[in-house]
Amino acid sequence: MPEELAKLTLTVPYNDIEAAKSAVDLYGDDIACVIVEPVAGNMGVVPPAPGFLEGLREITAEKDILLIFDEVITGFRLTYGGFQNIAGIEPDLTCLGKIIGGGLPVGAFGGRREIMEKLAPMGPVYQAGTLSGNPLAMAAGIATLNCLQKPGVYDALEEKTARLCAGIKKTFEEKGISHRINRVGSMFTLFFTPEDVTDFASAAKSDTELFSHHFGKMLAGGVMIAPSQFETSFVSLAHTDEDIDTTLAVLE
Ligand SMILES: Cc1ncc(COP(=O)(O)O)c(C=O)c1O
Q: 148, 178, 202: which is the final residue of a domain?
């Protein structure tokens, strides 16, 4: 990213509402929007601390700053809808991707009517592309969303992921290996650290060499996990109970 563009962005630590307040106090009128993953996935899984998202909603509403939830990972994964439905917070805009395209390349965004009406053809902001609304991607997305509307699917995901994480915890406890597992529904990260992970600074304290060793051993055993300590693992409806048993056996 060009340095000049990066200079237009302020970064504050996740879960640090005081830092966000200070940034808004300092730059208030110059801030167009605050964008946040409501459950962080791109430093490994970090759930929002109580009051963090509520605080962001409050300070952005006060200063007429748009609040954007990046639900590319969380959208349709934790419930039918976004994490915003679980948290009870309404952002001004929401970004979606991944699940909404059923594995095909799709991105989507939506939000308040008066913002969406700024887009072409109603408004002056041009937004289009050769593959926008591509029929194949739309069909895959609709098929996936139909599948996710079936009763019990989110309970099944919760159950499978809870069992997997309980098994991982038990194995590491038995072997005396320091770790933390952060999990929200079917997304989780195993951090090799003795301390709670609540933001990027605490995630970065993880033992990445141990992670590499773990990754290599799992791969050799036929289980391919995400190749970085700072990624999220996802359990999907396609994972069987047998897959979970195999994963735990290889981990052992
Ligand atoms: C939270 C989040 N937002 C946005 C993106 C970017 O999505 P895309 O790769 O579809 O542009 C990703 C990609 O992994 C993501 O995890």
A: 148
